């Protein structure tokens, strides 16, 4: 009787007015299971739904690919929600047609514990507890209607797909900008890491993904003490996979300092990197053999502020770099000992600790890894080079003795040979004065002084300029003295050269001789013919060189280059000297351009003087071993015939006519001169 009564009661209730039957999935799939729903026009959509619905902001956080009006019935039946009806999630649908707008699906009805955890995460709340605008929803990570098990490769939260799922937001510049994400390039960096490569290229399922480090539903801000990526918690987070290394690290000098709350104590990310963790064998890795001693360890141990704060001797890094090991490493030797070779990588302890690899009792074993048979005596002394201990003091004074020995011995040799050279050149000069009568005055006293000042200041500027660029120092004097010598030596030489240039401008404008020289220095078509004729002579095509006037094309090119270079160097030099004033009128990149121009113009001028000008003065066989013209301003008739034949003809013509030549024409020097 009981089953029949129940059936009868249900039948009656079914047909009572006001009692509606629950909607089944088939009724929903009549529309949403047909792909043609995607092509419905606005009118068709309006005719199949009723207007209205809740006014809720649209969800666009992840823009998951599966969010669509079309629902694949077969994929839905294979999902973890196969036994969940459409209206279990879309509970606001009571009858058909439903309203145009539906409430956002709330998964907490079934997943209450996860939802409560997620509601407190960094995705939902900022670090200071404010709600995040339009936070990621469950569907952004897990999918919408076809939600596969996380153990299936089709799931967006399958371990191989986690990075791609997170990247849909964290690789989107609009999202990272709007959310003020601290490391917007994290997704891209992770793709190059050994963790991601182990998953993608090697197929390992134990390599770290985003959620292994950051957490899944309980993600916290890195500043939160409870966060798995907080700098104090990071070693334990990495230790979930690298538990053996973590056990060693937490007892090390770095690990114990981090546990005590030392803010600058290095954790895993400080040495290995955060997202772009590379293999030790990768030359780009910060823990590669070449990087450890050159970049990674010095980033803390060579930092003066950190050294002063924690009493760490900053000269240890410099001492290593000057040692045999350091010099070999800088030359590219990947087998030579670096910091980790002696101090260890994770098991780093003070030298007083018996566990330390640099404890005096353990040094023979440590050194013996590279130097078999090393004894306790092998490792005695200051390994890093520099002052400290008996060995350090002995090395310091031996070095100083040799420096002074080099200065005195080589300096004495230079002085001796310099005097010898001077006396021989003096004798040669007297001899040539007898040979070259009559002598022709090419440069008068004023011009020789201008040339000497330009010569002296140019080489001072070259030496001090490159010293400023590359931090050259004079040994045996203090760093402060070197700084002053480089900076003020360069500026004073620049001012003297500028004053010489200003005087030269007045000379060529306000003196008849100067104006005449300037006119003769201007390029002419004959210079082009002279270049062609000279090249033909060099190649053996012509039998003789062209005849030159007062100035050859070589001298004209040098003079015009000097004028151009002086203007460029003065302008850019003053911009760099008075940076604050310059930046009132120039953008920062303008000053950067001035720096580039100043440096490369200096390189160009230096090479031009060495290759071009000094050849003609000191190396040219016609003047060997040197032209004395820059000293006494004179040239013999033989060299005038060879170098300036056209001007010599002009001089002879004036002499035959008994006419005083213009002041710019080379005159015959008197015997007294």
Summarize the SSE layout with pairings:
Blueprint lengths: L1 H14 L9 H8 L9 H7 L24 H6 L7 H4 L22 H7 L19 H5 L19 H9 L2 H6 L7 H6 L2 H7 L9 H5 L19 H6 L3 H7 L3 H7 L8 H5 L16 H8 L1 H4 L2 H7 L4 H8 L1 H7 L8 H5 L19 H6 L20 H47 L3 E3 L3 H26 L8 H32 L1 H10 L3 H14 L14 H25 L1 H4 L5 H32 L9 H4 L1 E3 H7 L1 H13 L9 E2 L5
Antiparallel strand pairs: 1-2, 1-3
Helix pairs in contact: 20-21, 25-26, 26-27, 29-31, 33-34
Attribute tags:
34 helices; mainly alpha; 673 residues; disordered N terminus; elongated; Fumarate Reductase Cytochrome B subunit
Characterise this structure:
The protein is mostly helical. Among the domains are: 24-108, no CATH class; 437-668, Transmembrane di-heme cytochromes, Chain C (Fumarate Reductase Cytochrome B subunit), CATH 1.20.950. The chain is built from 34 helices and three strands. It has helices at residues 2-15, 25-32, 42-48, 73-78, 86-89, 112-118, 138-142, 162-170, 173-178, 186-191, 194-200, 210-214, 234-239, 243-249, 253-259, 268-272, 289-296, 298-301, 304-310, 315-322, 324-330, 339-343, 363-368, 389-435, 445-470, 479-510, 512-521, 525-538, 553-577, 579-582, 588-619, 629-632, 637-643, 645-657, and strands at 439-441, 634-636, 667-668. A three-stranded antiparallel sheet has the order 2-1-3. It starts with a helix and ends in a 5-residue tail after the last strand. Mean pLDDT is 86; it is low at 1-21.
In brief, what are we looking at here?
This protein is mainly alpha-helical.
Distance between the termini: 149 Å
Given the C-alpha coordinates, what overall shape results? elongated
Number of strands: 3
Mean pLDDT, all residues: 86
Share of helical residues: 40-55%
Our Rg estimate from Cα atoms comes to 43 Å
Task: Give the percentage of residues in beta strands.
Answer: under 5%
Quickly give the structural class: mainly alpha
According to CATH, what is the class of the domain at 437-668? Mainly Alpha
CATH superfamily of the domain at 437-668: Transmembrane di-heme cytochromes, Chain C
Strand order of the largest sheet: 2-1-3
The low-confidence runs, each spanning 5 or more residues with pLDDT under 50, are: 1-21
Number of helices: 34
Largest sheet: 3 strands, antiparallel
CATH architectural type of the domain at 437-668 = Up-down Bundle
State the CATH topology of the domain at 437-668: Fumarate Reductase Cytochrome B subunit
């Amino acid at each position: 009787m009981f089953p029949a009564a129940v059936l009868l009661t249900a039948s009656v209730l079914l047909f009572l007015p006001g009692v509606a039957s629950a909607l089944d999935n088939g009724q929903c799939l009549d529309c949403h299971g047909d792909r043609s729903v995607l092509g419905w026009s606005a009118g068709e959509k309006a005719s199949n739904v009723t207007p209205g619905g809740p006014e809720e902001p649209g969800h666009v956080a992840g823009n998951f690919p599966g969010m669509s009006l079309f629902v694949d019935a077969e994929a839905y039946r294979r999902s973890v929600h196969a036994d969940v009806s459409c209206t279990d999630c879309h509970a606001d649908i009571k009858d058909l047609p439903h309203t145009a707008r539906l409430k956002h699906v709330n998964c907490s009805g079934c997943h209450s514990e996860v939802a409560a955890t997620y509601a407190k995460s960094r995705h939902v709340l900022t670090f200071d507890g404010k709600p995040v605008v339009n936070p990621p929803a469950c569907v952004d990570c897990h999918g919408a209607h076809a939600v596969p098990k996380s153990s299936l490769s089709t799931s967006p939260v399958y371990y191989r797909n986690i990075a791609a799922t997170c990247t849909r937001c964290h690789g989107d510049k609009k999202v990272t900008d709007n959310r003020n994400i601290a490391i917007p390039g994290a997704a891209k960096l992770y793709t190059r890491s050994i963790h991601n490569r182990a998953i993608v290229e090697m197929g390992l399922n134990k390599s770290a993904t985003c959620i292994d480090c950051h957490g899944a539903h309980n993600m916290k801000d890195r500043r939160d003490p409870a966060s798995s990526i907080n700098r104090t918690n990071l070693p334990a987070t990495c230790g979930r996979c690298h538990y053996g290394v973590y056990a060693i690290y937490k007892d090390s000098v770095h690990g114990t300092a981090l546990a005590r709350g030392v803010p600058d104590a290095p954790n895993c990310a400080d040495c290995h990197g955060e997202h772009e963790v590379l293999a030790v064998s990768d030359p780009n890795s910060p823990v590669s053999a070449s990087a450890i001693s050159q970049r990674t360890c010095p980033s803390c141990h060579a930092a003066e502020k950190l050294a002063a704060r924690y009493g760490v001797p900053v000269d240890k890094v410099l001492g290593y770099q000057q040692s045999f090991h350091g010099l070999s490493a800088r030359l590219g030797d990947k087998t030579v000992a670096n910091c980790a070779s002696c101090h260890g990588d994770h098991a780093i302890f003070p030298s007083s600790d018996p566990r330390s690899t640099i404890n005096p009792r353990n040094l023979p074993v440590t050194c013996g890894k590279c130097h078999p048979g090393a004894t306790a005596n092998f490792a005695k002394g200051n390994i890093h080079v520099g002052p400290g201990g008996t060995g350090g003091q002995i090395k310091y004074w031996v070095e100083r003795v040799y420096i002074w020995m080099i200065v005195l011995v080589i300096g004495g040799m230079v002085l001796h040979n310099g005097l010898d050279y001077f006396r021989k050149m003096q004798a040669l000069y007297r001899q040539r004065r007898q040979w070259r009568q009559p002598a022709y005055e090419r440069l008068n006293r004023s011009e020789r002084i201008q040339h000497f000042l330009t010569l002296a200041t140019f080489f001072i500027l070259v030496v001090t300029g490159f010293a400023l660029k590359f931090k050259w120092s004079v040994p045996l004097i203090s760093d402060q003295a070197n700084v002053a010598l480089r900076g003020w030596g360069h500026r004073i030489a620049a001012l003297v050269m500028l004053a010489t240039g200003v005087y030269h401008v007045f000379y060529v404008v306000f003196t008849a001789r100067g104006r005449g020289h300037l006119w003769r220095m201007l390029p002419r078509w004959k210079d082009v013919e002279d270049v062609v004729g000279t090249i033909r002579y060099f190649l053996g095509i012509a039998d003789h060189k062209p005849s030159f006037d007062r100035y050859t094309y070589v001298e004209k090119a040098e003079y015009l280059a000097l004028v151009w270079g002086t203007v460029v160097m003065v302008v850019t030099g003053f911009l760099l000297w008075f940076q604050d004033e310059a930046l009132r009128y120039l953008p920062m990149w303008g000053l950067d351009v001035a720096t580039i121009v100043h440096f490369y113009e200096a390189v160009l001028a230096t090479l031009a003087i060495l290759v071009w000008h000094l050849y003609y003065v000191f190396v040219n066989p016609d003047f060997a071993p040197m032209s004395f013209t820059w000293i006494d301003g004179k040239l013999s008739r033989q060299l005038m015939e060879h170098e300036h034949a056209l001007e010599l003809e002009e001089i002879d013509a004036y002499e035959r006519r008994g006419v005083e030549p213009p002041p710019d024409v080379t005159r015959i020097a008197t015997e007294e001169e």
